[in-house]
Design a protein that fits this description.
Largest sheet: 7 strands, mixed
Radius of gyration: 19 Å
């Protein structure tokens, strides 16, 4: 990650003319968490500055993560320990959003979840029945408690016709230890073993999550900015939702990847502390 930062000679780079001023005028900032705000629970230098800057300027902040193994309450408690108080409506996770989407589209279902107890609780909370046998839906999440038995069951259930749902397409999740296998990697094992492709893949880069956040905050898409560290999820999701986008170099992406990728953010910043300086008019 340090090497990525060194590849950007200035604190930020504007890839679309006028993007800096348009982003300064945005009313809603939608932030990825892992690799953007913190790594393995440790905030980056400048993260608190960014939150304080939005507060001073009266702008809205929503954290949007593809992490699908935790409850909303666990995030609220974690941020509170950092001295940052958030409301439930300021945290949107792919796991919880998937549960709510399935309920809205199909009604309450019998669901087998490849996931932690926390995400099982969230599915039950919104109205689904979490089961170990004969499910109507199989949901694959980012599961740090993954076992062979879980993959075996998921494979057999989707082979028999259960709806195959993946909360997010990420192949890995950044951590201080290095990349961790994420929902996309786990779902790939189920897909290859069963010969069945997922029916629904939720989370970024699908624009549904961002569109939902924009709608709930009563702003236009041109008044919203998606900030993240991954081109193929965070930035692509913002582009597909029609928002402004900022790529930070504290997580997965680096300048070499930006140069090679067809997915281009409107602005690149070394970290969200730099973005705070931009919003406050310091640079």
């Amino acid at each position: 990650m340090d090497n990525a930062n060194q590849n950007l000679s200035e604190p930020y780079a504007e890839l679309k003319e006028g993007a800096k001023e348009r982003i300064k005028n945005c009313e809603l900032f939608i932030l990825d968490i892992d690799g953007t705000f913190y790594l393995s629970g440790k905030p980056f230098e400048g993260s608190r500055k960014f939150v304080d800057a939005l507060g001073r300027l009266g702008k809205k902040l929503v954290f949007l993560t593809n992490n699908s193994n935790r409850t909303i309450e666990s995030y609220i408690n974690e941020f509170e320990e950092m001295g940052i108080k958030l409301g439930r409506n300021q945290i949107v996770t792919a796991g919880v959003a998937t549960a709510e989407y399935l309920l809205e589209e199909f009604g309450p279902k019998r669901v087998y979840i490849v996931g932690t107890d926390d995400i099982k609780y969230e599915f039950q909370r919104v109205g689904h029945t979490v089961v170990e046998e004969d499910p109507e839906v199989v949901v694959v999440t980012f599961d740090k408690t993954l076992t062979y038995e879980k993959i075996k069951k998921a494979t057999q259930f989707v082979s028999k016709g259960a709806l195959f749902v993946v909360t997010n397409p990420d192949l890995n999740c950044p951590s201080s230890e290095g990349p961790l296998p994420d929902a996309g990697a786990i779902a790939s094992a189920v897909r290859k073993a069963s010969g069945v492709y997922p029916n629904i893949i939720f989370g970024k880069p699908e624009p549904k999550l961002i569109e939902m956040v924009i709608r709930h905050n009563n702003v236009g898409k041109n008044e919203a900015c998606m900030v993240g560290d991954r081109l193929y999820t965070d930035i692509l999701a913002g582009i597909q939702a029609g928002t402004w986008t900022v790529l930070v170099l504290t997580g997965e992406a680096n300048m070499e990847q930006v140069q090679k990728s067809p997915i281009k953010p409107h602005l690149i910043a070394k970290d969200i502390g730099v973005l705070a300086d931009i919003l406050l008019g310091g640079i």
